[in-house]
Each structure stands twice: as structure tokens, then as C-alpha cells.
Amino acid sequence: MNLITHLVETDIRRSRGLLLVWLLLLALQGLLVSFGMTPADRGTQVFFTLISQYMPQLEMLLLFVFVPLVVLADPLVGTTGFWFTRPISRADLLKSKALFAVVVIVLPAVLVEVVVFAANGMTAHYIALVAPDIILEKLTLILIAAVLAALTPTFGRFAMVAAALVVALAAEELVVSWLRVFTSQSQYPTLMRSRDVVTCLWIICGGGAVVAHQYLTRRTMRSIGAAVFVGVVTVPMQHFLGWDFMAPALPKRGVPPFEVSAVKIELRRNIFTQEIMTAGGQTSRSRVTSMRRGFL
Amino acid sequence: MNNVIETQGLKRRFGKTDAVDNLTLAVPEGSIYAFLGPNGAGKTTTIKMLMNILEPTAGVAKVLGVNSTALGPREFTQIGYVSENQQMPEWMTVSQFIDYCRPMYPNWDTAFCGKLLKQFDLPLDRKLKSLSRGMKMKTALLSSLAYRPRLLVLDEPFTGLDALVRDEFIRGVLELSEEGNWTVFISSHDIDEVERLADWVGILDGGRLHLAESAVALQARFRSIECVVGEAARLPASTPRSWLGPEMAGHCMRAVESSYQPEASEALIRSVFPDASQISASPMSLRDIFLALARTFRLND
After folding, report:
1. Do A1 and B79 make contact, defined as CB atoms within 8 angstroms?
2. ipTM score
3. For residue A240, what are the domain limits?
4. How many angstroms separate the CA of residue B98 from the nearest CA in chain A?
5. Is the CB of A154 inside 8 Å of chain B's CB atoms?
6. Closest CA to B191 of B222, B164, B172, B166
7. Considering its fold, how many domains does chain B have in total?
8. Tens digits of per-residue pLDDT, A117-149?
């Protein structure tokens, strides 16, 4: 039997309880959003709305338990890990964890969202446009949790570092909003989204490199240095990047101006769907993304 | 004879402390090597460097002919490692643990594993976290023996085990070492336990190796000497270098002779105490040798 599959199977067996909770949460989220569970009485409706609102937060919280538990099952820090003296190569361990993350965490989450979109009449074309965005979002969260877990020896230490990170992010937000007052920065939705995408890509690439480095070398101090660098660069990227690659292309001279009559807004079931056609019949990805945000 | 483990000037520093300093040792193939030393002597740090868990600050260690920093899956199919500090996958049952380890080793011997299971009397359906410390150590030992490694490294395997389990453990290791030409490297601060096992001894203290030789040579070399001396006799300021911890008790002089040779040692005693009588030289246990040496190292430090 392939050692990588054997390790993935072991991780699945070890985390089967949490895995079940994870899948149930995804299924419940999908059911609530996609099949228009709209109970007649107002009280139940409010309850359902509340659940729907808190689902993403719960999902994120669960990810921050699930990912470190899987990473810390074979710790990379310290000197007591069982796998250190067993014939498991560092590269194989990394591959097995990556495979676990993709198959068990990302894939079901993407599938559920695809089902939600499909159930609400979204075309395959739109789903294909939105899918990378979902993957980007999930991978970013997984990588943040994986970096912290790869650089800590126990779950307790992981929780402490994660809490410190949350505090640091809140402080950062405070400082940045104060800076914004003085720099009077514009906050175009497309610019914000462009920054989000670049930041996510940076975290995925940088975080992935840190995790890979830690798995392959177990040089923790160097990995911590690299993680701090990735984190520090993320701050200006998220708030001050001026490259708005998602902004709609300006109409060329001679091309008739944007026609308001081309905008069609359709309300179906309890879902808000928005379709904006540009003059050339193209739909910008940023709009699809904002449409997806409207869904959830 | 080939050496399974060889180190040359091995050193590991933590901050300003040298946990292991300039360690040079050789473990011959097929031997049971007892790596002795008090707590904090640097035994576990040495083993962690040998197993590529820690990187040396300086020096080189070779295990099975491979530089310890390059030890990988291929070498680990030939090395068994049991340590009191090892984090076992405690959520598994004994049976699941065996199933987990088996695919990692192409040389896993299922029949031998079954034999060990019977010998160690391990409950297959119980989770590791619910096992006693002794049972857990035996499970770890089983998982490190079932693939018949060329080298078995045991780091303080007796800590926390009661006398009965210790005895079973030692008997297990002895029986197994007789089955094949296995090399066992065992670290312990509990000399009594390894005395029955060891055919080679290395003594580490303060990160330095003070002695490394075969148990037979060591026990032939060391004797506890005693003699009756005259009333006015006193211990001279300078005693022979081969005497460790000489002391007077009334008319009796006691010392540990570290280079014992029947006639030469008696002559040496007479050269210091011309009127010495009732000279006796008794063989020493490994424990007594270790204690005499440890006291001397401490005094010299």
C-alpha cells in the first residue's frame, strides 16, 4: 500500500469525529441556503436566518480546530514526535497532509457551494468563474491555520498563538483605519476585492512555502522568520495596494456609454441574483464575486 | 569488527551550556552497549543527535555508516527506537498501532510480531492511552522489534517501570539479542538494570565521555582493595593514580584499583604501606565501578 494513502487514511481515522461534524455543518449550510428553507412562522424564520449568518464563522472556527489537529498529530516542532524515527520521509508526510486538506476539507466545501449555486439556477459558466474564488478563500484559511500549527508543538500553544494573532489583527485594523483618515484613501469595491485576491494569493504562496520549508527541513526559527515576513507584508498589501485589476475596463472612445437599460435585476425565491451585462456582453469576474457575496 | 555507531568530536550546545561536549565513541556491531550516566549527563541529547532528531553543534555522528544528519526512511527501516519521551499515537488500540506501523516497513515480520505479542502479553483491543506505562513501553518495543532492526536504541526504557515489568523487559531484550546479531544501544541512569544486559559500557558525565570499554575488561580492571595497615600509618598526600577514592578507616585502608593486576597491585600497596597485611581485592559490580568513577569525576571537576 502506498505510504501516503496509508498516512491519509490514518489521519481520517484519527479525526473521524471532527470530520463528521465538519461534513454535517457543510451539509446544513448547503441545505439552509440552497433549498429555500423558509418556515411559515416568523420566529423560526429568524432562527434560521441567525443560523445561516453564523454558519461561516462556525465553519472557520471548526477549520481552526481541524487543521491544527491533523498537523499536530505528527508535530514538526520539538523532539518527541513519533514519526521522527520511523521510515516516513518529510516529503511524504507533507504530501499526505496536503492531500488530506484538499480531499477532506476543500473538496467537500467547494462541492457544497457548487450545489448551492446550481440549486439556485446559476449557470455552469458562472459557477466555473466563482469556483476559484471559493478555493482561494478556503485555502487561505487552511494555510493560516497550517502555518501556525506547523510552528507550534502542541494544540495549547497553537491556540495561544492564534489568539495573539487575532489581537494583532484587531490592532492592525485600528491603526489602518486611523491612517485612512489622514490618507483619505478611496474604497472602491473592486479595489477592495483586488486587494483581497492578491492578499489571499500571497498568503497561499507565502504560507505554503513556510509550511513546505518547515516540513522539509524542520528549521523552526527560519520558518518563523519567513512566516513573520509573510504576515508583515500582508498588512500593506491588504490596505494600501493600488492595483485595481478587477475594475471594469473603461469604454473606448466612440463606444456608446454604459446603458442603464442593460441592467437586469431578478429576485428569485429568497435569493438575490444580479446580472449585469456590459456593452460587449462580458460579465466581469468581480461582479460574479459580489453576486456570490450577495448569496451568502 | 564493524561499528554500528561512531561519533567524532560530537557536541551540542543549548545557549551557553554544552549538553554534550567532544564525544567520541564507537559501538561495535552485535554488542549490547550500556550508555550510562547520571541524570542530565547528556545521554538523551546524544541519542537525539544519533537519531537525527537534534542537529549537532559540531562534530560528526555516523549510524549504520550514514551521517546522522542524513538519516532517512531507508535507514529507519533498520533502526528501532524506544524512548520514555516518545509521543505515541495514544488514540489507537494496540492492534491499530501495529496496523499503522506495519506498512512502513518492507521487512516487517508478521510471525515474529505475533510471537512478541504473545510474549509481552499485550491486549490488542485496548487503546494505548489506557495502558499502563510498562505496557506502553512494551508496545513501543514490539513496534520497534517486529521488523528485526539491525540497531535497537533504547533511551531510559526502565523509567517508571516496576521491578516485574523491568525484568520482563530485560529478559525480552536479552532473548531477542540472542536470536540475531542485533546491536542494542541502551541509555540508563539505573546501572543495576543494565548490568545483566551490557557487554560494552560507556560512562558519560557532564556531557563528556569518561570511559568506554567492554564490560569484561572493565570488571577485570577494577577491584575494591582493602588492607590492614600499622597504627601510625596515614594516607600519603599523593596516592597512586590508579587508585580511586582512597580512604582510611581505623587501621583499614580502602580504595578502588582501576588497573588491577594481581601481583603488580599488591606490590603497589606495599610500596605505599610497607607494613600492609591482609590485602584483599574483591571484584566490583558495574554499579560500584560507576559510583567510584562518578565520585572521581565530580572531585576532578
Report:
1. no
2. 0.84
3. 3-295
4. 12
5. no
6. B166
7. 2
8. 888 888 888 888 888 888 999 999 999 999 999
